[in-house]
Amino acid sequence: GGIITQTPKFLIGQEGQKLTLKCQQNFNHDTMYWYRQDSGKGLRLIYYSITENDLQKGDLSEGYDASREKKSSFSLTVTSAQKNEMAVFLCASSTPPSNTGQLYFGEGSKLTVL
Amino acid sequence: GDSVTQTEGLVTVTEGLPVKLNCTYQTTYLTIAFFWYVQYLNEAPQVLLRSSTDNKRTEHQGFHATLHKSSSSFHLQKSSAQLSDSALYYCALSVNTGANTGKLTFGHGTILRVHP
User: Fold this and answer.
1) How confident is the model at residue B107 (pLDDT cuts 50, 70, 90)?
2) The domain that contains B7 carries what CATH number?
3) Which of B29, B35, B52, B103 to mutate to test the interface with A (most CBs of A within 10 A)?
4) Per mean pLDDT, which range of A41-45, A61-65, B10-14 is the poorest?
5) Cα(B99)–Cα(A66) distance, integer angstroms
6) Looking at the 3D structure of chain B, how many domains does it have?
7) Could you state, in order of their start, the residue ranges of all structural domains in chain A?
8) What is the CA radius of gyration of chain A?
9) CA–CA separation, B13 vs B114, rounded Å?
């Protein structure tokens, strides 16, 4: 089996601050994802990457940047944190659709902006 | 674009009674698969069921679901709910966007609370 590791688990920032979340996977999956989880809104896709150095925008990419420097890691940057924002960010990787297309998730990074 | 609609908000059921969480979808893609993910408190979402075959029942951990393309549905059911089933459940649609790359669209999630 494999694991998705997200760091940090908890992040507290100030309004306007640039904040970066990191994700590592050892599944050797090609595709990685960043989702934002909000109560009542489900999981919304921010960015995904189908291979090293590739980036694809999801439905919620505004206000975020992402970086896929190598196959095993995928970073997400909140470019300017919004006051009183609270959210959980989930990283995932997947097998290709020709296999199962299943996503494997990390435990999440919880962001609080003061 | 693709969309997934599932039972809104909170579903409460008594232990031992049946439970059903609804899921319907819209997509223009032909190559598709469906998932139910479950997220227990303070844990990562994990796959509960997967199906890509029309009218075939899929089962796992006492839960079952059948993909019905004629009605665009993939409802989740269990005949006897357990306290340990209390969790957040997501229905998700996976499409092949080309180059063998998938993209999942999730519903808003349904909280299932099973009480004694």
Assistant:
1) very high
2) 2.60.40.10
3) B103
4) A41-45
5) 21
6) 1
7) 15-113
8) 13
9) 5
Residue of B23, B31, B90, B106 to mutate when probing chain A, most A C-beta within 10 A: B106
Question: CB B47 to CB A102 under 8 A?
Answer: yes
Distance from CA of A103 to the nearest CA of B (A): 8
Q: Which domain holds residue B20?
A: 3-115
Q: Do residues B78 and B89 touch, judged by C-beta distance below 8 A?
A: no
pLDDT of residue A99: 63
H helix or E strand, kind and range, residue B115? strand B110-115
Architecture field, domain A15-113? Sandwich (2.60)
Q: State the smallest CA–CA distance between residue B78 and chain A in angstroms.
A: 22
- Contact state of A43 with B47 under an 8 Å Cβ cutoff: no
Residues 6 or more apart whose CB falls under 8 angstroms from that of A1 comprise none
Q: Residue B31 is nearest to which of A97, A100, A108, comparing CB atoms?
A: A97
